[in-house]
Amino acid sequence: MAYEVTATRRRPQRFEDLVGQEFVAETLRNSIQSQKIAHAYLFSGPRGCGKTSTARILAKALNCANGPTATPCGQCQQCLEITKGACTDVIEIDGASNTSVNDVRQIKDEVLFPPQSCRYKIYIIDEVHMLSTSAFNALLKTIEEPPAYVIFIFATTELQKVPATIKSRCQQFNFRLVPIEKVKTLLGEAAAEINIKAEDEALYWIARESTGSIRDAYTLFDQVAAFSGGEITYDKIRDKLGLVGVDRLNAIFESCATNKTTDALNQLDDFLQSGISIEQLISNSTDYLRSLLLIKNGITKEALLGQSQDRYSKTVLEAWSPVQIERGISLFLQLYRDIRYSLSPRYELELAFSRLSWLSQYVSPAEVKAAIDKAQALLAGAPQPTASHGGANASGAQRQSSVANTHFGNAQTQPTSAQTGTPQPAFAQHVQPSQPVQPSHDATQNAEPQKSGGSHGSAIPNGLPVFSALQNAPQSDDGYNNFAPDTASPDSYPVEQAVPPEVPDPFDEGGAVPPEQTASVPYQTAAAAGTINDMAELKDRLVSELKVQDTMLATSLMGTSQWTLNGDTVTATVDSAFLKQHLESQRSQISEHLTRLSGKTLRFAVQLLVQQRRSPMQVATKEVKIVCDAFRGTIVNVVKKEDAQSTSTPSTLADETDTPAETIDSEITEETENDESL
Predict the structure, then answer these.
(1) b vs e for 295-328, b when ≥16 Cβ sit within 10 Å of the residue's Cβ?
(2) How far apart are CA 449 and CA 206, in angstroms?
(3) CA pair distance 261, 651, nearest whole angstrom
(4) Which of 64, 49, 40, 45 minimizes the C-alpha distance to 11?
């Protein structure tokens, strides 16, 4: 007897033999028993899951000598001929080879003749999605109203390519992939039939490689059985097919988990020297990491893992978190896509395992965000500074100033002596209230004032390092360390600074500036600001600070000129009414900045520059120049108003000056359009 492959020898012959397609088998059995037989069926699903076998079983059930019956006998002439594929009334057509409309016309001609020896004439068209559009259209009318003795059975692996007009005329059955446990059971039965011993681990590997396709599983089983010599073991499969194996994967991944890059690369070289292909190694490594991820998530099902849970390295499981394992899987998935266009696939693989060596240091964006949120919550719970206008009556804790601004914009306070029991630095104690502290030249150059939380004071950006440097300063000649902790009470030498009040509108009638009020402010306010008497320097400092905080306001201030100081009012001149309106709306904010930068209370005012009125010809010349600059052109000639409008009467310059603005704009536009050079 000729040799038959396992897939052909074990093809299902009854509905009960269909594995993993119980819904399809039960539905077809019930329809046959109730004599509710459709004239067209459409079977769709992955390869090797039983579509063609189900079509043949249905043909036998309908044409059996004892039928139609849900359990064909398999012994009558019709059943035997259908099983062998020799029945003239059951026609199997390959849709990939018969795609033209002429093939469909032949079917239309044949359906006119009744079956010869069977009850039904059945057409089984495999891979029906390969038919052309014209062939589908030619088949529509036939499958919609065929003769009573004709039944169509279509099978396809790509249902989306079948036109909706065909789908709507057929009963559709979706076939699914077979679970791995059932595939392993079928493989064990096949091995027992031919007297071959097989290990469960080897059968699990074959079932997993088939990905749910029974035909693929039987094909791979035949290949493994051919070189196994009557006994199928996982070691033989690993050696003959170039697999890595879970034990060898444990070794290389343990090296990566313990940050032993040299050992991992040496082991990788041993794998490649033994004949393992790069694609196979990437595939096995991805499966290994997937199994680790399943174990980390509490899944221990052997059918999913492919191995027993105990065979996976506990060192790797403890070293990597689920997020890090996911990162490793994505690394290998991307590697498999990249090696096709790589300069050297081996280099790509070595780079991947080198990256795995520091995978334990990988931090996901979600973990970074959680850490930042936790830090922000801790910083938000710190005590906030409290300002008091009482001066001498304020407590030492209230007068303690802020040391540094945090990155979250909230000023954090240094604990006071009343809170921690530690003495305060002497530099905050020996400053006289009536004498503002003058900073050193370097501190003034490097310290940019920063606005924080609406406070009038500003802190040195890197306050904590400066604080440490002041503590470690050398002693003076008189034997005292000016920056060392002192036993004097901080209440004895409060640091006070004038705080600017709300600046009223200087143009409002009756508006008066309230008297100055004093309050405790940070020590760094005077150190960062200093005393500025030059208006140009004050303008530059203000613009530099606002470039970071308010770009639009800084741009508007750059357009001002002629800054003058009259008493406590700084007046700036502008040549635009719009610019004047914008600066007046921000006058209070500008006054606060000026007060802080200069060290004394200042108000800000804006004055509109009164320009000499120009004639329409001057306006037109300026506008034409602006257009020329924008388009990089050249002024060839400017047409005067009298030349452009010869019909108009001459007018004096005073009359032209009194011309409304709308008229001037229209004349300028007309003159610009008439200039061909532009």
Answers:
(1) bbeeeeeeeebbbeeeebbeebeebbbeebbbbb
(2) 71
(3) 93
(4) 49
The helix (H) or strand (E) run that includes residue 428 is none
Are 572 and 606 a contacting pair, CB within 8 Å?
yes
Q: What are phi and psi of 565, to 5 degrees?
A: -115, 120
294: left (phi over 0), alpha (psi -120 to 50) or beta: alpha
d(C-alpha 61, C-alpha 78), whole Å: 10
DSSP state of 299: -
Q: HEC profile for 256-272?
A: HHCCCHHHHHHHHHHHH
Residue type, position 475, single letter: Q
The string of DSSP codes covering 78-120 is HHHHHHHT--TTEEEEETTT--SHHHHHHHHHHTTSPPSSSS-
Tokens 């047409």 appear where? 639
CB distance 126 to 95 below 8 Å: yes
Tokens of 11: 């093809």
Largest CA distance in the chain: 127
Q: Quick check: 386 and 377 in contact, CB under 8 A?
A: no
Positions in the chain short of pLDDT 50: 382-531, 641, 644-678
Question: Would you give the distance in Å from CA 124 to the centre of its chain?
Answer: 48
pLDDT for the residue 406:
36
Query: Tokens for 572?
Result: 């700036």
* Separation in Å, CA 564 to CA 32, 602, 603: 104, 12, 12
Report residue 343 as tokens: 């300069």
Count of helices and strands (H, E) across the chain: 32, 14
* Residue whose tokens read 């002439």: 77
Q: How far apart are CA 353 and CA 343, in angstroms?
A: 17
The residues, ordered by sequence, that sit 6+ positions from 68 with a Cβ below 8 Å of its Cβ are: 32, 35, 37, 61, 62, 119
Decide: 73 and 79 in contact? Cβ < 8 Å. yes
State the Cα–Cα distance between residues 180 and 166, nearest whole angstrom. Answer: 33
- Give the helix, strand, coil percentages of the chain, each rounded to 5: 50, 10, 40
C-alpha to C-alpha distance for 264 and 254, rounded to whole angstroms: 8
Tell me which amino acid residue 607 is.
Q
| Confidence at residue 626, expressed as pLDDT on a 0 to 100 scale | 66
- The rounded distance, in Å, linking the Cα atoms of 392 and 603 is 28
CA distance 368 to 104: 64
Residue of 599, 589, 393, 603 whose CA lies nearest to 499: 599
| Eight-class DSSP state of 155 | E
What's the pLDDT tens digit per position in 534-571?
788 888 888 888 877 787 888 888 888 888 888 889 89
- Please, what's the b/e burial string for 267-289 (b: 16 or more CB within 10 A of its CB; e: otherwise)? bbeebeeeebebeebbbbbbbbb
**Token code pair at residue 658:** 């009194």
CA dist 466 and 527 (Å) reads: 12
DSSP alpha helices (H): ranges in 339-384? 345-356, 365-380
pLDDT of the residue at 464: 38
- Nearest Cα neighbor of 400 from 379, 380, 422, 428 is 428
- pLDDT confidence of residue 302: 78
SS3 labels along 308-336: CHHHCCHHHHHHCCHHHHHHHHHHHHHHH
Residue 468: count of CB within 10 angstroms of its CB: 9
